[in-house]
Amino acid sequence: DQQVKQNSPSLSVQEGRISILNCDYTNSMFDYFLWYKKYPAEGPTFLISISSIKDKNEDGRFTVFLNKSAKHLSLHIVPSQPGDSAVYFCAASKGSGGSNYKLTFGKGTLLTVNP
Amino acid sequence: EAGVAQSPRYKIIEKRQSVAFWCNPISGHATLYWYQQILGQGPKLLIQFQNNGVVDDSQLPKDRFSAERLKGVDSTLKIQPAKLEDSAVYLCASSLGHTQYFGPGTRLTVL
C-alpha cells in the first residue's frame, strides 16, 4: 500500500522556467512533509519541509504548497537551473512525540533541466 | 559540521555470504535510522534507534538482518546470509527532530 505517491516518474523543463513536482498521500495522520533531492551515488539531501498547520513554505527558489483537503503537496522551483537536475523524493511523517518521526517516502521524480 | 558517515561505499558479495555496514551519525543526533533503497523505489525504513534503544524494527527481516547501536553513537547493520533480493543501497540517517540527514549510502550487490 503506497501511502505516499509521486505519479510522475520524470519531468523535463527548460532552464529558467518553473518546475512543479507533485505528491499525493493517503494517510490523514501525516502531519509533516519533506522534500529531498538526490544526485546519483549520493544520499538524499534535505531541501524543504512543511508542517500541516501551514499551506505554504518558501526558501529561496523553492516553495512547497500543501493542500490538506486534497491530500496533495507540490514543490515549485523557480527559476529552474541545470544543477537542479536530480531525483526528488517526497516524504511524510506523523509525529508521535519525542524524536519518533518515521518517514514514508514516495518513489521519486527525476527532474531534468535542459540548458 | 560533519555529515553522516557510512562505510563501505560499495560491496559485492555472493549469495549466502554475510556483510556488515557501518554508520557514524551527526554528532549529537540521538535518533539513527537505517533504510533500504531498491532501484526505482524510495527509501524504506528498516530500523530506528533512539540513543541505543530500538524504537521501530517492524520492517526489518529479523531472520537475516540485525542491527546494533552500542553506546548510542555508531551503528552497524548486518545481513547473514544474504539473498539476491538484498541488492540495494543501504542508507543511514540521523536526526534531532523531523528532519533526517542522510549519509552517502552503501551500494550492495549480491551475486
Describe the structure.
The complex is a heterodimer of chains A (115) and B (111). Chain A is mostly beta strands and 115 residues long. Chain A has strands spanning 4-5, 10-14, 19-25, 32-38, 45-51, 56-59, 62-67, 72-77, 86-93, 103-105, 109-114. In chain A, a hairpin with a 6-residue loop joins strand 4 and strand 5 (45-51). The relative contact order of chain A is 0.34. Chain B has 111 residues and is an all-beta fold. In chain B, 0% of the residues lie in helices and 50% in strands. Chain B has no helices and eleven strands. Chain B is globular, with a radius of gyration of 13 Å. Chain B starts with a strand and ends with a strand. At the A-B interface, strand 4, strand 5, strand 9 and strand 10 of A face strand 5, strand 9 and strand 10 of B.
What is the gist of this entry?
By secondary structure, chain A is mostly beta strands. Helices cover 0% and strands 53% of the residues of chain A.
Q: What is the string of helix and strand elements of chain B?
A: EEEEEEEEEEE
Q: Total number of β-strand segments of chain B?
A: 11
First-to-last CA distance of chain B: 37 Å
Mean pLDDT of chain A: 94
Succession of helices and strands of chain A: EEEEEEEEEEE
The poorly predicted ranges of chain A are none
Computed structural class of chain B: mainly beta
List keywords for this structure.
heterodimer; A: 115 residues; 5-stranded antiparallel β-sheet; globular; B: 111 residues; mainly beta; 0% helix; 50% strand
